[in-house]
Amino acid sequence: MKKLTQILLVTLVLTLLATPVLANGNSRTLQFTHRGEDVLRLQKTLNDKGYYNYNLDGIYGKVTERAVINFQIDHKIRIDGIAGPETQRTLYGNSNSSTNGTTTKNYSSGDQYWLARIIEAEAGGESYKGKVAVGNVILNRVKSKNFPDTIYNVIFEYYGSIPQFSPVADGTIYNTPSQDSINAAKDALNNVRPVGNSTYFFNPSKAAGTWIVKNKSYVARIGQHVFYQ
Description:
By secondary structure, this protein is mainly alpha-helical. The protein folds into 2 domains: 2-95, Muramoyl-pentapeptide Carboxypeptidase, domain 1 (Orthogonal Bundle); 104-228, Arc Repressor Mutant, subunit A, CATH 1.10.10.2520. It is 48% helix and 7% strand. It contains 10 helices and 5 strands; from the N terminus they run αααααααββααβαββ. It has helices at 2-18, 37-48, 62-74, 85-95, 109-123, 128-143, 151-155, 166-170, 179-189, 210-215, and strands spanning 158-159, 162-163, 200-202, 218-222, 225-228. A 3-stranded antiparallel sheet has the order 3-5-4, covered by helices on one side. Helix 5 packs across helix 6 (128-143), helix 5 (109-123) crosses helix 9 (179-189) and helix 6 (128-143) crosses helix 9. It is elongated, with a radius of gyration of 22 Å.
């Protein structure tokens, strides 16, 4: 009987140790060497946002840790490679923003695809943040009374005989978007806004942007693009 009691106690302790420690009421704090469904969910979400491009195996290895660090850097939160409460709030908050701002459910798959196309055409060589920023601008135009009210019409808007976006003029708008551009479109539609209310951007090495500089307010520079509102 004594031996049975000891076995039961050991089993109970092992069960408790194996149970995820809750952080912020949702999931445990995840870090290097952890395994499980929560790690797999973390990898999938990082993959959707363009930070993780490796095996979805549910193992928190060096690649997952590096992806978390890159996400933390881009979102200006504590950089430690650990998916704690703050990192998970930021990560899952952006991907589950159905009650906050714009969401993908308000747009069709066609809207998302055209947004990914303009992102690819304008920012194919830019960082992931730079890609999301271009999507951010397009959606700001859709919301503005000064521009058309659909993604497609914003992309194909002309002033006289001149298209607003050069990829429309040179045909690169029809190129197939990369997975990064598709992910960036999803993030932009889910209200990730790295350039806030910007409605203009240009590449200073390719265009002077004189009217924009004189009439609009500078917001930020990301890669080769400067953004104005």
